[in-house]
Every structure is written in C-alpha cells, then in structure tokens.
Amino acid sequence: VAKISIFAFFLEIVHYIDYDFSSFNWKNIFILSSLLSLIVGSVLGLTQFRIKRLFAYSTISHVGFILLALSINSTESIQSYIFYILQYSISNLNAFVILITIGFSLYLYVYNDNKSPLHGRLANDNYSPVQFINEIKGYFYINPYLAVSLAITLFSFVGIPPIIGFFAKQMILSAAIDSGYIFMALVAILTSVIGAGYYLNLIKQIFFYKNDYVNNPKLENTNIKVHTNNNNLETIIIKPHNIIINSSLSTSISILTLLLLLFIYIPEEWFSIVSMLTIILFKA
C-alpha cells in the first residue's frame, strides 16, 4: 500500500507539474533513478541468501521498470505504468502469502542443522520460520501445489510468457523504444536477464534438490480432536505429508495464481480498466 501511494504521488508530480523546469528537470531524475534501480536491484540480488532480502532487491529492480515508464510520460507509457503496478502488486502479494503458508506447513518438520550450520547461527525463528533460500530446497516434495504456485509467481517476475509479467514488461519496453529511449530499453532487457538468475535459482532449489527436513518426532502421528462444521468432535492424525492449509490462505493463493496464469484469456478487462484510468488522468 505504501509503495502504491508513493507511485501515485509520483504520477501526480509528472502530470500536474511542468515537466521541463529549467532549474529542476524531473525527467532526468526519474531516468537516472530508473537506471540505478535496474542495475542495483539485479546485480546485488544475485548475492543474497536470505529470501526476504532477495525479494527486497527484486522490488528495487521492478521499481526501475516503473520509473522508466513514468519518465517517458506518454499515453502508452502511463498505461504501461498503471498496468505494471497492478500486476506487480498481485504477484508480490501472492509471493508473500505463499511464503507465509510455506512457513506454516514446515512446523511439522525439523530442520537438520547439521547440514546447515548457517541456519543455526543466523536464523531468528521468532520472526519468520522461512528465512534462507536453502530452507525451501526440495519443497516440491513436501507440497507440490504451493511449489508450483510459487514457481508461476516467480516466472511472472522474470517475465516469462504467457504469464502477466511478460506483457507488463513488454508494454514498458515498447513505450520506451517508441519514444526513443533505446539505451534504457537495452539496460532493462539486460538487467531482466541478470535478475532472472536468482529467480531461476529459487526454482532450481525448490524442484531439483532434495530437502534437508526430517519429520518432527514430537508431532508425528499425533492425534488431535477438532470440531467439524457440524460441531462434531473428530480425531485427526497429524502426518507431515498430509498437510492441511487454512482455507483462506489456499483460496487467496489459488485466486492470485490464476490471475497471473490466465491473464492471456481475459486481457480485455485488464486493459479496459488501465485505459479508462489513463484517459481520466489525461483529461483531468
């Protein structure tokens, strides 16, 4: 919400303030900020081993795309600006909901600290059960549905067609090339390729490695009594490979993931909303 508010404020600045102040040129500031964001976010993201910090640098890289669209300040670029913010908000929300759900699902497991002394020294489980990239290694073999949902979200960040993130980046690059920002378009493409490295590394860790978790002996095959929808008491046997995710979380993840994946079947609705907002802005 805070990021969206800031981007809305920037849009107000660009639209309602004279863009070519002789003493203060907003366009050059936005272009320079876009260039630095693209480079810093993509390059430094490759060095991260904490998941949240990795997503923080990922956000910096995406801000570079957003500022590039804003600095062009054409009808097409403002459309791509609004569309990029909408799709990135959905993708980012889905990624964090999935990571939270993964953390809940791993309470039935014990991490083998002998295989990862780094986790034992640096982790703070009071704040987040999942902090390091190697903690989601092999998660596909624990819960394939969450793993696939996270992979789809990461592919959207990368810009793999036909997921929605591809069309958002394509719109900004098209607007940049049409307006003569060839160098910035090339930088954006190059940094996207670099940034794809850490996203694909996450996917490789999730799908192509075995995990280092063992079943928690304190919870394995534990019987608990729960109330069903009919207020009847039933006994449930907790098993690590029979994880039940909260219905609100599973519904949220399903809807958000389908929005990312099935955009290609409902593009008119998205573009109609974006075009309407752009027309209202330019006529204001």
From TrEMBL:
Catalytic activity: a ubiquinone + NADH + 5 H(+)(in) = a ubiquinol + NAD(+) + 4 H(+)(out)
Residue ranges annotated for the NADH:quinone oxidoreductase/Mrp antiporter transmembrane domain, each copy included: 3-195
InterPro entries linked to this entry: ND/Mrp_TM
Family: Belongs to the complex I subunit 2 family.
E.C. no: 7.1.1.2
Localization annotation: Membrane
GN (gene name): nad2
Transit peptide among keywords: no
Membrane topology value: Multi-pass membrane protein
Molecular-function annotations in GO: NADH dehydrogenase (ubiquinone) activity
Keywords: Membrane, Mitochondrion, Transmembrane, Transmembrane helix
Statement: the UniProt record of this protein carries the keyword Membrane: yes
Domain of life according to the entry: Eukaryota
Organism: Pseudocercospora fijiensis
Listed GO CC annotations: membrane
Entry protein name: NADH-ubiquinone oxidoreductase chain 2
A Pfam cross-reference name: Proton_antipo_M
Membrane-spanning parts: 29-47, 54-73, 93-111, 145-168, 180-200, 243-266
Principal localisation: membrane
